[in-house]
Amino acid sequence: MSDPVALDLRLLNDYQRDFPLVPRPYAQIAAELGLDEAAVITAYGEGLARKVVSRIGAVVAPRRIGASTLAAMAVPKHRLEAVAERVNAHAEVNHNYEREDEWNLWFVVTARDATRRAEVLGELADETGLTVLSLPLIDEYHIDLGFDLYGAGGPRAGREEVSSAPCALPGIESALLAALEDGLPLTPHPFADLGARAGISEDMTLSVLEGWLRDGLLKRFGVVVRHRELGYTENAMCVWDVPDDQVVELGRQLATVPGVTLCYRRERALPHWPYNLYCMIHGKQRDDVLTLRAGLADRLGLDRFPHRILFSRRCFKQCGARYATGRDRQTA
């Protein structure tokens, strides 16, 4: 391939899911693209340096390991940056965004268990003197943050997700997950190097990863891109207060709409937050996001229920969840 732009797109787009689980994955990618192994490793290193790539690694299925929740705070404008910095200081926080709403700071807490999750939320309330809403996931209808970078359809459409029971990893697997938190090494034999971090062989490393994918512990293994840095800057969290006897059916229908990247049901946090049905729409233009949202709401009759649209403003933190360790992983 002679077009470097097309090459970059293929490296980012095509290997978000279908990343080779073989001893020399970068060599296989190189063979598929007509490159050499060193060029592929260099390209991914440049993607990390430019922050369009978060990491190459595992995306764990929701609720399979540890305990997580979406949380929100209503922060006075003059305190927002200071409070966001305080939130970011907790290793258990892996996403933290400002959104356009009275409840303007939204973050995800992923902890080793429900007890530690509650401790983190309590610590944040004590440290800031602010109310912290906790909005745990109840049902997931569609979660997919892979992006079609060719522009044919924007964010990928996907299938309805099937929830699975949480599990406790044995020691060896827990060590491997911890080793993966910093991403797959950019070396000729990355799975051997990854296994060395965890104290296991290359063969066992590949076998465990294949098993995790097969059993649904991982949603995918591959390139994790940063959607904002790739131009998807107009992103809206859309919420509705849907009667409990209708939310499942409406959620399933909403999940099938092309362009909806996330769709799930969360617990309400009364009296502050009555909403239980959520979807995320990621786009490059605000008007496009609003048009898509208006169309799906009209099609499903959603706006007969109380609702809000919360566009993101700033990203204060975005990184992979720390399921296995308490080390912080700060990113710009």
Characterise this structure:
The structure is a single chain. With 332 residues, this protein is of the alpha+beta class. The protein folds into two domains: 1-50; 67-160 and 228-318, Alpha-Beta Plaits. 34% of the residues lie in helices and 24% in strands. Helix 2 crosses helix 3 (37-49), helix 6 packs across helix 7 and helix 7 crosses helix 8 (202-215). Residues 1-5, 152-163 and 325-332 have low confidence and may be disordered.
Structural class: alpha+beta
| Domains, number | 2
First CA to last CA: what distance?
A: 32 Å
Helix percent band = 25-40%
Rounded mean pLDDT score? 87
Radius of gyration: 20 Å
SSE ordering = HHHEEHEEHEEHHHEEHEEHE
Key terms:
332 residues, alpha+beta, Alpha-Beta Plaits, 2 domains, nine-stranded antiparallel sheet, 10 helices, globular, disordered N terminus
List the helices and strands and how they pair.
Blueprint: H1 4-13, H2 25-33, H3 37-49, E1 53-60, E2 67-73, H4 80-88, E3 93-99, E4 105-111, H5 114-128, E5 133-135, E6 137-143, H6 171-180, H7 190-198, H8 202-215, E7 218-225, E8 234-240, H9 247-255, E9 260-266, E10 277-283, H10 286-300, E11 307-318
